[in-house]
Each structure stands twice: as C-alpha cells, then as structure tokens.
Amino acid sequence: CIISSTDIASPNITCASSVVVMNQDSLAPAASVCASGGLLMVNSSLVADSEIKAVCDTEKKTSGNIFKIVAIPATEMAAKLGNAKIANMVMLGAAARYTGALILDSVQTILESFFPPSKHAFIPLNVEAIRAGVSLGHL
C-alpha cells in the first residue's frame, strides 16, 4: 500500500520505509522491499514468529537489510471487536501510531467520504478497529 495525498503513478514498490504484512504469503515479498532501518509490521495472528524470524534472517543474509519488526495480533483483535474482516483497519491504526502517516482526528471524515452512504453503518466499527490498532502500536 502506498499512502499519498496525490495520484500514485505506479504501485510498484522497490524500497519502503514501512511495510504492513497481513498474511504468511506476503511476508517474504514485503521483507524484500523493506528498507534497512525500516519498519516491518506483521499480523502475528496469521504469521508465526518462527516464520517472521526465518524470513528476516534470510533477508539480512541476502541483502544486508536489518529492520525493526513489530508483531501485531490484528486478526485476533478484529475478532474480539466482532468481525475478523476489519483486521486491516486494526493494522492501519497500528501503522498510524508507529509512522504518523494518518491523522486520527480525521479518520471518521475520511471514511465518510470513502464509503457510500449505504455503507455508513460500518464506519463506527472501522473507527473502533483503527483506535484499537493505535492502542496496540508502541515501540
């Protein structure tokens, strides 16, 4: 995911300062683009610690990249909130806390402009998930 206030010309990422990994299959490709000194945020509900360590050790050996790793139980937290499908919003909240890439006071307004009126009933749960992610995110 690329976060920008302007149009994004190309979604291809070769080096990222922060990377979110939601599942096992995304771990190796994400680690390969995480910059040295960057931040790799991993959904620990779906990716085992041993896999995270193995992939990061391989990345360190092949590219020399060393990055911070943060395990966030996003799917588990989302399920506790009532819907595992909002794990992405939990991760968004954690990413916002770690990176400062999102102004939390504007989340509800952003979601209201993103979701069509017929989906506005989902906004409170999404905001709650983002806030839960923020509460999990601290180095």
Detailed description of the structure:
With 139 residues, the chain is an alpha/beta fold. The protein folds into two domains: 13-72; 76-139, no CATH class. Helix content is 49%, strand content 15%. It has a three-stranded parallel sheet, with helices on both faces. Strand 2 (34-43), helix 2 (49-63) and strand 3 form a beta-alpha-beta unit. The model has no long low-confidence stretch (mean pLDDT 89).
Sum this structure up briefly.
This protein is an alpha/beta fold and 139 residues long. The chain is built from 6 helices and 3 strands, in the order E-H-E-H-E-H-H-H-H.
Strand line-up of the largest beta sheet: 1-2-3
Would you identify the regions where 5 or more consecutive residues have pLDDT less than 50?
none
Largest beta-sheet details = 3 strands, parallel
Q: What is the share of helical residues? A: 40-55%
Percent range for β-strand residues: 15-25%
- Mean model confidence by pLDDT: 89
- H/E element order: EHEHEHHHH
| Total domains | 2
3D shape: globular
Our count of helices gives 6
Based on secondary structure, the structural category is alpha/beta
